[in-house]
Each structure stands twice: as C-alpha cells, then as structure tokens.
Amino acid sequence: MHEDAERVFERLKAGASGYILKKTPPARTLEMLRELVAGGAPMSPAIARKVAGFFHALSPASEDMDQLTDREREILHHISQGFTDKQIGKKLQISDHTVGNHVSNIYQKLQVHSRSEATAKYLGR
User: What's the per-residue H, E or C state across the chain?
Assistant: First the structure.
C-alpha cells in the first residue's frame, strides 16, 4: 500500500492489523501473512519506522502534560472542548481573569502560543 504517513495511520486506526507495502518482495509478503495469521501485526520496515516515530514524538508532550497542575489540566480539557475563558470560569466558579492566568501558565509549560496548539498537545498525548 501507500507510504504516506497519514494514510497509514488512517488504516491502522480503522482496525488494520498490519501494513505491508506493495513493493515488498513476494517471499517476505508470504512470511508477513503467516505472521498475521499467527496473531502478529506485520509491518514493512519503512512503516514500522513511521509508527515508532509517531510514538516517539508523543513522548515529550506526555512529559509536558506532567508539569501541569490538576486545575490546569481541567482548564485545558475545557479549552479542548472549545469553551471560552468566560465559559470555563462560570463552569468552574472562578473568574475569567483567573482562567486567563491558568491559560498563560499552560502555554508556558507546554511551550505553545495558542489554544489550538495547546489542544493539539493535549489530544496528542
């Protein structure tokens, strides 16, 4: 199949048990199919590198998330749901100014500059 990372991840998310490129030699393809039947998840080496790279890229985000306080995580969750500072403040019974302070701390700790960047890190962990 295709080596395009986006297509690969779409297929894996949809339930594919492995991913073999069309250019894989026939003998190796048969070997990988046997691995699949035995319960494995065969992938061409180039695809395995892409998958490993994807998870390695997530690691720093997870470490960044560990720096957040419980309140900051709670606020970031609401940000990821599309709520404004005012809406978050009302929901948590704090002022929108206090929410803004928390948002500034979140940006600093996650090393981001916008709500969308913060949300991407939050959802990508």
Answer: CCCCHHHHHHHHHCCCCCECCCCCCHHHHHHHHHHHHCCCCCECHHHHHHHHHHHHHHHHHHHHHHCCCHHHHHHHHHHHCCCCHHHHHHHHCCCHHHHHHHHHHHHHHHCCCCHHHHHHHHHCC
